[in-house]
Specification:
The complex is a heterotrimer of chains A (835), B (226) and C (372).
Chain A lengths: L2 H13 L1 H40 L4 E5 L4 E2 H9 L6 E11 L2 E11 L5 H4 L9 H9 L3 E5 H7 L6 E6 L2 E11 L2 H6 L5 E4 H7 L4 E2 L1 E4 L3 H9 L5 E5 H8 L1 H34 L2 H9 L4 H45 L12 H28 L2 H5 L1 H31 L5 H38 L1 H12 L1 H39 L4 E5 L7 H8 L4 E14 L2 E9 L16 H6 L4 E4 H6 L7 E6 L2 E11 L8 E5 H8 L6 E6 L5 H12 L5 E5 H43 L2 H9 L4 H43 L9 H28 L2 H6 L2
Parallel strand pairs in A: 4-8, 5-7, 14-18, 15-17
Antiparallel strand pairs in A: 1-10, 1-11, 2-9, 3-4, 3-6, 3-10, 5-8, 6-7, 12-19, 12-20, 13-14, 13-19, 15-18, 16-17
Chain B lengths: L7 E10 L2 E11 L4 E5 L6 H9 L6 E6 L2 E2 L5 H11 E4 L11 H11 L4 H14 L15 H14 L4 E5 L7 H18 L2 E6 L10 E6 L2 E4 L3
Parallel strand pairs in B: 3-8, 3-9, 6-7, 7-8
Antiparallel strand pairs in B: 1-2, 1-4, 4-5, 9-10
Helix pairs in contact in B: 3-4, 3-5, 4-5, 5-6
Chain C lengths: L1 H14 L11 H9 L28 E11 L5 E12 L15 E11 L4 E10 L5 E4 L3 E5 L2 E7 L2 E9 L3 E9 L4 E2 L5 E3 L7 E18 L2 E16 L7 E11 L4 E9 L9 E5 L5 E5 L4 E9 L6 E10 L4 E7 L5 E3 L3 E13 L2 E11 L3
Antiparallel strand pairs in C: 1-2, 1-13, 2-3, 3-4, 5-6, 6-7, 7-8, 8-9, 9-12, 10-12, 11-12, 12-13, 14-15, 14-23, 15-16, 16-17, 18-19, 19-20, 20-22, 21-22, 22-23
Helix pairs in contact in C: 1-2
Classes of the chains: A alpha+beta (835), B alpha/beta (226), C mainly beta (372).
Chain lengths: 835, 226, 372
């Protein structure tokens, strides 16, 4: 770059330090918001994955039993008869500790000799061989997570009392489960013991499952062995069924980081391109005095690179800080609800920062290159002309609006594809937003034209000038407005989606929780048939629904089975109304109902047959219809209890819904039921309200972070936009001075500046409303549906819409305040003299 | 006999920029409809004098009366109203609002004075016609030549029928022929309307047209004897 | 010899962690197999008249025990292969607690299985571990059988011979029948092979040094019918290691004249031979000449550095037994015969050339190099 050109650029910024400040602020914020959200998203994702992989490790498949556990002999056969090498027996259960009775802990029983290939178990076990020898040879020895030992003040050698199904057993800690490598990654650690010890402590003769590492061919071979009583399940299926709500949470974060990317791009673009555009005249002069196109272009790019670098580095630092706050929030949610112990903050991988770097620098250069190329291409005279610039900006906005049509069409085509691909869904969403963003400058101009007479009427000529200014300064405001619109639409869209989701969950809970009191138990045979009969005739009781919940492995993955004898108010399901008489047919044992997620995921339709592993082997069941289910599993099959008992020969009951006569004394009724149940602490009795509130509070907690993220992203975008608008307003000093000389009072100048930015904010905010609704619709009808198979209604609650508008208008008003104040105070004479 | 008050009355004006004295002990009285020229070298304080009269700057010391108003006693609002109603500015660099058309630029001061829209358009169009710019109404400033721009600027300065036009080097940015045309135009239109014209210039050419000529030398303002 | 191999692991881990002499996976598994819990186990102190076939089976009152098969094989087209199949048993507790669970175990087994394909320049080695529970691993006497999941050695005959070896893994399979040509030979002093000055730092050690092998092996997708000569080593005991031993070089050589030589050199930290080094020459008739440290001179001729672990092994040797007038050169069939498993060592097929008092000697064998 020519030395003098460099000095010219440097002095431009030295003379206008606030310009430099705002340029750097805008770019930094763009990078920060993107990096922050992305890092938080990544942390959450890895926390989930790691917690799951801690339990499953490198496992590709699981062998799980049809009726629950599997016998030892099956493992024996796999090894001795089938020569399967990468197989590890696992016992997994939840226990409580007398030292911390309120929480449940996962215990995992393993064969340490088979673990190295699976979970890198050897790294769990502390250094000396004695520990491993003891673990296998000595009964009642365990390895305890370091964090747990720290929390309870335990040492190696300490005793610990485990409570399992009301029995207490004392074990000895012979070593810590080393968490160094794991804690870094933000996961939780189970209590580890030898598989023999696990059988003895958990009082069983069977194992929970066999973990396998198989190639596809081997997996097929295993399937073809026809092992009875077990099903081969893909570990990924199982992992994902691990917690679907967790995925919901992650999907939302992904959507957010996608939008953060868009907002970031717009923000940086707006900032950097303005920094170049405002010197068009200077560039024209430079061209006129013989600076070549390439020299000019190079000069601008070097400048953009320098500013972009500084700002991007600041942005990365800021994003890192932002991420810390967000990650804490994310992990708190994750830790509170998905895993029982603490989840630590993860060290983000460097490539996430690299992405931020590319975004910041790349967009800065691109943003500078476009106007620079334009300036270099046009004739020196035209380059100096502001009206030429505005006219070409006008043309550009028209072209952008035109260009948005094919993009919109592409988006609609993508969304219209009968694919279930989530990626395509996100692509469609992205295109719709991009197309809408391209429309923003044009709609803003039209909006300004429409409101000009109104503004003129209210604010006089200042108002009119403000409205006119909006459309005549599109070169400077267009991209900034688009950014604001997208940011606000995001805030609105995600808000609407979460609201709609919540309302649907509430409705679903009402439809599902029809009984007044629910009994549940995890213990076998805790609730007896005679007790149920006694409850049925107990005073104040109208009737009961009886349910057997179990999980059964199928070839399409593990599913929940809900076998039910309906109560006086029916089945407690909200049936998708496509299929008539589904409920009646269910009542007459003609088939089963399946949950929407199961239907969606497995592409099942009413009339299809679903094969389930019964004790008589695989049997087909006719699917009568779907019901809504926002539960956290892959899918649920609902069948009459009678049918279940015929095929599975299982008389167990683990859920009873009790309907109470509204006129009866509830307390008396409840104490009557308690009397029947006796003092059995394995049976939990919970009211309808309790379950509802608990469910909703889990829901709220899950989305609290989304809420916080949404507001935060909005705020940062808002700050960035405020800075972009501010720099634009500040650049109009001379124009303001002329107006002042013509007798416009300072107050009016203030009004003019403020009303102009407000108008932009209002235009973006209003435009963002329908866009936000569209976004919510896509999230609900495309993204959520494709992710989970959940159907829900779009509820247009006013709160997110108004919040969005408020955000846009506040951002623009705040953006106008400082320039307005400056315009009021600035010396007119000085501004006029400057040239 | 009717006492004719001076339209502009500067008494004992002192103006410093920091330690730098630009004007000192300046007295100036201008009557209604007069054409007064202030000459001096670049940077001699001509613009400052005009800015003081226009209320764009405040004197360090002394009093300024414009149309009976003592400027030092007015607040920003009142000064703005005075400028809006009584004054018109013509600048060396034209200073048209680049985002407004020629017509809109001319309409602007009328609109500021809440003259109804229809009238502003009529008056602006007739001014354009009078200034030989018919058909240029929808052009943006940059689509006009320098002379044309300055003619629009003069039209804008006259549009709201001010008492006084303050012209700061209005020809400084124009070639000789165009400069003469613009001067001629200013002189003629102001005299026709009885508008007071105060023009700062370093061109001696104007002197022949003016009623009175002042020159700034050092920090002193003196009436030149013709 | 494997006893010491395992014992030395502890030392190696302690002093050269940064060198990663032990692969990370399962390193602890081996540690416990050797290091601790010797209390209460019987020790090898007195001489023993081996009692066959009973002594072929396991001796659970001693902590460690192993069955160790190596051999050189070839196809009818004289394509050469080497194999190693070993079973190690480790006792965990001399007074085991009663267990309710079928998984409860007091013995742990480790197996190593390796094939050298000289022409194909492939060396493939795998290992596995299992507890002795649920019939997953163990040993029995009548008929003789040791097994580690689906790897097994089955003895059919009166005095275990013929032995049937079966082992299979992803890339290699071995099915061999071994017939003993000579009776078992006891090493050391009446079967007691002393490994250090401490009482009980010894093992019972005998070999079947000349086993005729016939059968098949598979390397990747190709199977070969093979014949050849194999060797079985048997040791058990309860020892802890002398702290100054860094490793050893073991040779089991089968000479063309029908004699076999077994010799091991224990190396101290300062690269000296320990006085407890020793071996045997097994004569045609099964008779034995004992070899002590002073009888044998070993001199490395050539070194090879493993590209995988960067360890450098002396892979060619000159072995002199001046007392017998024997001079031998020992060279590997393939340089790359390093087992980078839980325990890392070099064990491979070697060929022997030399002479005894001017008479040419040839042969095959196996060498085991540890502590490098």
């Amino acid at each position: 770059m020519n030395r003098l050109l460099g000095s010219a650029a440097t002095r431009f910024y030295l003379k206008r330090p606030w310009q430099l400040f705002l340029a750097i602020t805008g770019i930094s914020l763009g990078v920060a918001v993107y990096v922050g959200v992305d890092l938080a998203n990544d942390s959450a994702r890895r926390a989930f994955e790691l917690s799951a992989s801690l339990i499953t490790g490198q496992t590709t498949h699981h062998l799980v039993g049809v009726g629950g556990d599997i016998p030892n002999s099956l493992y024996q056969d796999l090894r001795l008869k089938h020569g399967l090498q990468l197989a590890a027996p696992i016992i997994e259960d939840e226990i409580r500790l007398t030292q911390a009775p309120s929480r449940e802990f996962t215990v995992i029983g393993i064969d340490p000799l088979k673990e190295p290939s699976f979970r890198g178990f050897s790294s769990f076990v502390p250094g000396d061989g004695t520990t491993l020898r003891q673990l296998i040879a000595e009964p009642a020895t365990i390895l305890a997570p370091e964090s747990l030992m720290l929390e309870l003040g335990l040492q190696v050698g300490s005793e610990l009392d485990l409570i399992f199904e009301n029995t207490q057993k004392t074990v000895q800690i012979i070593g810590p489960v080393t968490e160094i490598s794991l804690a870094e990654e933000g996961a939780t650690t189970p209590i580890v013991m030898d598989i023999a010890t696990a059988q003895e402590l958990l009082d069983r003769k069977t194992i929970s499952r066999i973990d396998l590492i198989l190639s596809d061919i081997e997996a097929e071979k295993i399937s073809s062995l026809g092992l009875s009583g077990v099903v081969l399940v893909n570990a990924n299926d199982r992992n994902s069924s691990f917690d679907e709500l967790a995925r919901a949470f992650r999907i939302n974060l992904t959507a957010l980081s996608l939008l953060a990317l868009l907002v970031g791009i717009f923000l940086i673009y707006a900032t950097m391109s303005f920094a170049v555009i405002q010197r068009r005249k200077t560039f024209g002069v430079l061209r006129a005095i013989g600076v070549s196109r390439n020299q000019l272009l190079m000069g601008i790019l070097v400048e953009a690179f320098l500013i972009g670098s500084i700002a991007t580095i600041l942005g990365l630092l800021l994003g890192h800080q932002l991420a810390k706050i967000l990650v804490d929030l994310v992990l708190q949610t994750v830790g509170d609800f998905y895993f029982r112990s603490n989840v630590a903050a993860a060290n983000p991988p460097p490539w996430l920062y690299a992405k931020g770097l590319v975004l910041g620098l790349g967009t800065s250069l691109l943003a500078a290159a476009a106007p620079a190329l334009d300036a270099a291409r046009t004739s020196p005279h035209a380059a100096m002309s502001r009206s030429a610039l505005e006219r070409s900006a006008l043309k550009l906005t028209d072209r952008a609006a035109l260009f948005s049509i094919p993009i919109m069409a592409a988006a609609l085509a993508l969304l219209g594809l009968s694919t279930r691909s989530l990626f395509v869904g996100f692509a469609g969403l992205f295109f719709i937003i991009a197309a809408s963003a391209l429309l923003v400058p044009t709609t803003t101009r039209i909006f300004a034209k429409v409101v000009e007479p109104i503004f003129e009427y209210i604010f006089g000529i200042a108002g009119s000038l403000a409205a006119r200014g909006v459309s005549t300064s599109l070169s400077r405001t267009g991209v900034a407005t688009a950014a604001l619109s997208v940011a606000v639409a995001t805030v609105i869209g995600i808000g609407l989606m979460v609201n709609s989701f919540r309302i649907s969950v509430e409705e679903w809970l009402s439809g599902t929780l029809t009984a007044d009191i629910y009994l549940s138990t995890e213990a076998d045979n805790a609730i007896t048939t005679s007790q149920i009969e006694a409850i049925n005739i107990s005073p104040g009781v109208l009737g009961t629904s009886v349910t057997r919940f179990t999980r059964i492995p199928t070839e399409i993955g593990e599913v929940s089975l809900r076998a039910q004898m309906p109560g006086p108010q029916g089945w407690g399901v909200t049936v998708n109304d496509q299929v008539p008489q589904a409920i009646e047919k269910l009542g007459s044992n003609q088939g089963i109902l399946i949950s929407e997620p199961l239907a969606f995921r497995r592409n099942l339709t009413p009339g299809d047959e679903l094969y389930l592993p019964t004790i008589q082997g695989q049997k087909p069941f006719i699917i009568l219809g779907f019901f809504r289910d926002y539960n956290t599993n892959v899918g649920t099959v609902l069948m009459p209890l009678e049918m279940y008992r015929t095929y599975w020969q299982d008389e167990m009951v683990n859920g009873v819904g009790i309907y109470i006569n509204p006129r009866a004394d509830r307390n008396n009724t409840v104490s009557g039921i308690r009397g029947i149940l006796g003092n059995n602490s394995t049976i939990r009795m919970r009211s309808n309200d309790f379950i509802r509130e608990r469910s909703l509070s889990i829901f709220d907690q899950t989305f609290k972070i989304t809420e916080v993220l949404r507001i935060l992203a909005g705020l940062v975008a808002f700050l960035g936009l405020a800075s972009a608008l501010m720099s634009i307003e500040l650049e109009r000093g001379r124009e303001v001075a002329v107006l002042r000389a013509m007798g416009i009072a300072p107050r009016q100048i203030g009004i003019l500046t403020l009303s102009q930015t407000t108008l932009l904010g209002l235009a973006s905010g209003l435009f963002a409303m329908p866009l936000g609704i569209i976004m919510a619709g896509l999230l609900i009808f495309v993204i959520n549906l494709r992710s989970f198979g959940w159907s829900m209604n779009l509820e247009l609650s006013s709160q997110p819409l108004l919040l969005g508008l408020l955000l846009a208008v506040t951002a623009s008003i705040l953006a106008g305040i400082y320039p307005a104040m400056r315009a009021v105070k600035s010396g007119v004479a000085t501004q006029l003299r400057d040239e | 006999m009717i006492h004719v008050e001076n339209q502009i009355e500067l008494v004992n004006i002192q103006k410093n920029y920091g330690p730098h004295v630009v004007l000192s002990n300046c007295d100036l009285s201008v009557r209604n409809g007069e054409f007064v020229v202030v000459v001096g070298r670049s940077g001699s304080g001509k613009s400052t004098l005009l800015n003081l009269i226009g209320g764009l700057e405040q004197p360090t010391d002394g009093t300024i009366k414009v149309s009976g108003n003592s400027l030092t006693n007015l607040n920003e609002e009142e000064l703005s109203r005075l400028r809006r109603q009584k004054l018109g500015f013509v600048f060396q660099f034209f200073n048209l609002i680049p985002t407004l058309t020629a017509l809109e630029n001319i309409r602007l001061p009328m609109a500021l004075n809440r003259i109804n829209k229809k009238e502003t358009i009529e008056r602006a169009l007739s001014l354009l016609e009078e200034f030989g710019l018919s058909g240029f109404d929808q052009r943006f400033p940059e689509e006009l030549s320098g002379g044309e721009q300055q003619r629009v600027a003069i039209a804008r300065a006259l549009a709201h029928k001010p008492d006084i036009i303050l012209a700061d080097e209005p020809t400084g940015n124009l070639d000789l022929d165009t400069a003469n045309e613009v001067l001629e135009l200013l002189n003629r239109t102001c005299r026709q309307r009885g508008t007071t014209l105060i023009m700062a210039t370093h061109s001696k050419k104007v002197i022949g047209l003016a009623d009175r000529v002042f020159s700034i030398h050092g920090s002193d303002l003196n009436e030149a004897i013709m | 010899m494997k006893n010491i191999l395992l014992l030395s692991v502890v030392i190696l881990m302690a002093c050269s962690e940064s060198k990663k002499t032990i692969s990370a996976q399962g390193s602890n598994a081996t540690q416990f197999l050797s290091e601790s819990g010797t209390d209460g186990y019987k020790r090898v102190i007195t001489q023993r008249m081996f009692d066959f076939p009973a002594d072929h089976s396991s001796h659970d009152n001693y902590q460690n025990e192993w069955w160790y098969f190596t051999g050189n094989l070839e196809t009818t087209e004289e394509r050469h292969f080497g194999f190693e199949l070993t079973f190690f048993r480790f006792g965990l507790d001399s007074t085991p607690a009663p267990r309710q669970s079928q998984w409860g175990a007091n013995q742990v087994w480790m197996g190593h299985f390796a094939v050298t394909d000289t022409e194909g320049e492939k060396f493939i080695a795998v290992e596995r571990f299992s507890r002795q529970a649920l019939n997953l691993a163990g040993s029995q006497m009548d008929p003789f059988r040791i097994w580690l999941e689906d790897w097994s050695v089955l003895g059919n005959g009166q005095n275990i011979s013929p032995l049937i070896l079966n082992a299979s893994s992803d890339r290699i399979t071995l099915d061999l029948t071994l017939e003993a040509q000579k009776p078992p030979v006891s090493h050391g002093n009446g079967g007691v092979d002393q490994k250090g000055p401490e009482e009980g730092n010894a093992s019972y050690y005998y070999s079947l040094s000349n086993l005729n092998a016939t059968g098949a092996l598979r390397v990747d997708d190709t199977s070969f019918d093979v014949t050849g000569l194999a060797w079985m080593d048997r040791e058990w005991g309860t020892s802890s290691l002398s702290p100054d031993i860094a490793g050893w070089d073991w040779f089991g050589l089968q000479l063309s004249d029908g004699r076999e030589i077994m010799y091991y050199r224990l190396r101290t930290d300062d690269l000296q031979s320990s006085p407890y080094s020793g071996g045997s020459i097994v004569l045609h008739n099964g008779g034995r000449i004992s070899l002590s440290m002073n009888d044998v001179v070993l001199e490395p001729l050539e070194y090879w550095t493993s590209p995988e672990t960067s360890a450098t092994y002396p892979i060619s040797w000159k072995m002199s037994i001046p007392r017998e007038g024997i001079e031998l050169t020992i060279q590997p069939y393939l340089n790359e015969q390093e087992l980078n498993l839980t325990v890392r060592y070099w064990e491979g097929a070697v060929q022997v050339n030399g002479n005894q008092a001017g008479k040419t000697l040839t042969g095959n064998g196996y060498a085991e190099l540890t502590g490098y």
